[in-house]
Write a structure and sequence with these properties.
- By secondary structure, the protein is of the alpha/beta class.
- The protein has a single domain, classed as 3-Layer(aba) Sandwich (Rossmann fold), CATH 3.40.50.620.
- 30% of the residues lie in helices and 23% in strands.
- The chain has 7 helices and 11 strands.
- A 9-stranded mixed β-sheet has the order 9-8-7-10-6-1-4-5-11, sandwiched between helices.
- The longest helix is centred in the first third of the chain and has 17 residues.
- The chain is globular.
- Bound molecules: flavin-adenine dinucleotide.
- Flavin-adenine dinucleotide (FAD) binds next to helix 1, strand 4, helix 3, strand 6 and helix 4.
Length: 261
């Protein structure tokens, strides 16, 4: 089983500033971390490799510093890592991002499974996984909380839904996004950290991937951020008076008026 794990480097703080001209995050000088959900995706990839053999390849589309996240992936057990980086990718929305990731997977070619996190903690859309599967024309299952069986080119998974879980069987190759309930990630080993330090991480550019310029960056991104703002905190506390019974009655009235009950 050859597994590709898609990982993204995200700001490690909520205290990020927005560029008022471009409506994009100012990432310079902000500490970056590996997207927390992608840590579970990586761990699952490594567990599959340990059970079924094969290798884990981590890929990330991002600026040059995203290489740090890829080294973390190697320390966590990935066998190899590839950085997809090019000035032409800047400003890409989820459609353009998933297009580039799909091109990279096509170039990797010998994959059986692609694992993504359920969402990032910055863009937060959860769109990249399903769009990636759509671009590749292969099956997709979201919110996977357990891989039950992998056998004869098929995989049976549990996916989380509001009321419980569904069991789904999919053919491989396919794409899944995973939730944090799927595993408990291990800590990087000393051997892994040493391997990560010396690993060669190739950089694949737009040209190397055969990506047309009109499919990436702002040109290839139909999404436009037309405004961005910090939500105002409007906490209006109110103390209810009277006996406990009166207070409860008044509270229920208010909740009814607000149509919350
Ligand atoms: C108009 C516009 C301009 C933008 N410009 C920029 C910009 O200049 N720089 C910038 O960094 N962002 C930019 N973004 C944000 C960028 O498009 C998204 O962060 C990116 O498409 C991923 O979307 P998401 O974070 O919602 O991922 P989700 O769909 O929530 O991610 C789900 C999973 O997909 C995988 N994944 C997501 N992104 C990547 C990735 N890049 N590499 C590998 N795996 C990934 C991970 O496994 C992740 O857990 C822009 C967005 C818009 C709408």
């Amino acid at each position: 089983m050859n597994v590709v794990v898609c990982i993204k480097q995200v700001p490690g703080t909520t205290e990020v500033e927005i560029d008022p001209k471009t409506n994009t995050l100012i990432r310079e000088g902000v500490k970056s971390i590996l997207n927390p959900f992608d840590v579970y995706a990586l761990e699952e990839g490594v567990r599959i490799k340990e059970q079924h053999g094969g290798k884990v390849t981590a890929i990330s589309m991002g600026p040059p510093q995203a290489e740090e996240a890829l080294r973390e992936a190697i320390a966590a057990g990935a066998d190899e890592a590839i950085l997809l980086s090019d000035g032409a990718f800047a400003g890409s929305d989820t459609l353009a991002t998933s297009f580039v990731l799909a091109k990279a997977c096509t170039k990797i070619a010998d994959y059986d499974l692609i694992i993504c996190g359920r969402q990032t903690i910055d863009g937060d859309t959860g769109q990249v996984g399903p769009e990636l599967a759509e671009n590749l024309g292969i099956p997709f299952v979201a919110y996977v909380s357990k891989i039950e069986e992998i056998k004869d080119g098929r995989m049976r998974v549990r996916r989380m839904i509001e009321e419980g879980y569904e069991v789904i069987e999919m053919s491989l190759p396919g794409v899944i996004t995973v939730v944090k309930e799927i595993n408990v990630p291990r800590l990087p080993s000393l051997r892994g950290m040493a391997k990560a330090r010396s690993a060669q991480i190739p950089i694949w550019t737009a040209q190397g991937l055969g990506v047309p310029m009109e499919k990436v960056g702002l040109l290839g991104s139909p999404t436009r951020v037309i405004g961005i703002f910090r939500p105002q905190r409007t906490r209006r506390g109110e103390l209810l008076q009277g006996s406990l019974e009166q207070q409860v009655e008044e509270l229920v009235d208010k909740l009814r008026q607000a149509k919350t009950v």
